[in-house]
Amino acid sequence: MTTPIKRLPARMPGWAKVLSALALVLALLFAGFRLSVVPGLKDFFGTDTEDRSGPALLRSIKDISRYDAASGNFQIVVDLEKDTRFVPDVIRGSRTLYVGAGTVDAYVDLGSVGEGDVTVDDDRTTARLRLPHARLGKPALDPERSYAVSKQRGLLDRLGDVFSDNPNSEQAVQRLAVRHIGEAARESELTARAEKNTTDMLEGLLGSLGFTEVHVTYGTATAQPPS
């Protein structure tokens, strides 16, 4: 009596394992893409969000002696394109359309006003003040009103995003938005409006104290003596 010999299963070649792994990765990527583009399909699985941030730490305190007299709201559409020389855009390259919205404040630094910049007559009815010219603060980008309209990336850039998480991917367009907003603020009449508002504020304040004439000029204020 003879016993049949069972054949051992053939081992999968190395190239077949590589192709199987690649097919699995592509299937997962396709599934993720479908979840992101089909409305309501992502909610079927449900997601939980938990804030694990630590407490905020106070690093420093700075006294402010400026009067914020005006604030401008700006919006810019940033079109940033990056190309690789001699490589088609479909292979390597990116183009991002980003809507950046932010504000710029204009202020008058009252802390630099010296004793010689404020004069009052003997009857305390006339006051003359010399203040420094209004200045612009740093542009502040509003994340609630800023967003990416579209992102076009080449094949290699997409593969790089799959295998690496780059949290700074939008920093380039955000920096451009901040720069353009600052340039627009400098070309606007924001500082002139700030000086007018400061004058109106001082006239109203000193008028309530009994001054009938208030003269406010802007130029180089006298430096404060050291305390």
In short:
The chain is α+β, with helices and mostly antiparallel strands. The chain has 5 helices and 8 strands.
CA-to-CA gap between the ends? 114 Å
Helix and strand element order = HHEEEEEEEHHHE
Largest sheet: 5 strands, antiparallel
Summarize model confidence as the mean pLDDT: 77
Total number of helices? 5
Low-confidence stretches: 33-38
Task: Give the overall shape.
Answer: elongated
Helix content: 25-40%
What is the total tally of β strands? 8
Secondary structure category: alpha+beta
Radius of gyration: 32 Å
Strand % is: 25-35%
Topology of this protein?
Layout: H1 14-37, H2 41-45, E1 66-83, E2 93-109, E3 118-120, E4 126-132, E5 135-136, E6 140-141, E7 147-153, H3 155-163, H4 171-187, H5 190-208, E8 213-219
